[in-house]
Design a protein that fits this description.
By secondary structure, the protein is an all-alpha fold. It is built from twelve helices and no strands.
């Protein structure tokens, strides 16, 4: 059995991180019906976003489309409104807390599901990913009834709200980290262990830097999902702290001012920035062709 030195391990790590991509294959021409369908899909997805932005820049007194004119009047109103600004900042804080917890729990769960072989592993994977399948309104109602029936004081409380958001966002972290782990060469970690590194040190020095893109992508996805989470927040939000989606819902029920659309502009901007960060730090091609079974 060949002995791997520290220099050899460093060389293998450099080759792993900087390995040249596979030669590009000639792209096949895509039929025009698929191109038209793709453009129609983009239009359907982006048209509501454009309507919200234009409605938030409306110069009129009511939430109408097309706008009567363009003005920053309601943008300034958003910063003056304690209702929307406090809700925005609270949703931002809640999303950050949820992101941290979901990233830690989801990364550990992904390692167990990928590295460990035991009876019922596929069933456990389905159990962890089930919040992606369940409708949010069903999950929120089920959590609320569970909190009430147990009498643990979690109903309409901050810990209960955070638990609900973590349950919804954890599957995104598990999915991205699992994809990164399936692409990781475990012999690098084994080489580090053979040189005397413990399990935690080998994970921190070798595994984590190589799966960092998957961990970061899952963290950003969980942040975005938590920030815009409406269904779970509708049942679990506390009386004193209102997330932004609930504040928008209440405003549109009782008032019809463009301030809600102006708040939506800042929410859209936050999501766009998060996605740009994800595209910058994550190489999507590394997750292509992954078979998770």
């Amino acid at each position: 059995m060949a002995v791997i030195t520290q220099n050899g391990l460093r060389q293998r790590l450099r080759l792993w991180r900087g390995r040249s991509p596979a030669p590009k294959q000639e792209e096949e021409r895509i039929a025009w019906p698929f191109r038209i369908g793709a453009w129609l899909g983009f239009i359907v997805l982006l048209l509501p976003v454009a309507i919200v932005v234009l409605a938030g820049l409306n110069s009129g007194d009511h939430l109408t489309f097309p706008p009567e004119g363009l003005s920053l009047r309601w943008i300034a109103k958003f910063f003056e409104s304690s209702e929307f600004l406090d809700a925005y900042l609270f949703s931002l804080w809640l999303a950050v807390v949820t992101m941290v917890i979901s990233t830690v729990i989801g990364t550990m769960a992904a390692i167990v599901l990928v590295r460990c072989v035991f009876p019922g592993r596929n069933l456990l994977r389905v159990y962890f990913l089930s919040p992606l399948i369940l409708p949010g309104i069903v999950l929120g109602l089920a959590l609320y009834i569970f909190y009430i029936s147990t009498g643990w004081g979690l109903a309409r409380s901050m810990p209960g709200l955070i638990i609900g958001h973590v349950l919804v966002t954890c599957p995104y972290v598990i999915g991205t980290v699992s994809a990164a782990l399936y692409n990781f060469d475990t012999s690098l970690e084994e080489a580090a262990r053979s040189l005397g590194a413990g399990p935690l040190k080998a994970f921190r020095k070798v595994t984590l830097p190589n799966i960092g893109a998957g961990v970061a992508a899952g963290a950003i996805f969980s942040f975005i999902v938590s920030f815009g989470q409406f269904d779970v927040s509708l049942f679990l939000s506390t009386p004193n702290y209102t997330p932004l989606p609930i504040a928008l819902y209440i405003s549109l029920r009782y008032t019809f001012e463009p301030t809600a659309a102006a708040a939506g502009i800042f929410a859209i901007a936050l999501v766009v920035i998060s996605m740009l960060i994800t595209a910058k730090i994550v190489d999507i091609r590394r997750f292509a062709g992954i078979k998770l079974s």
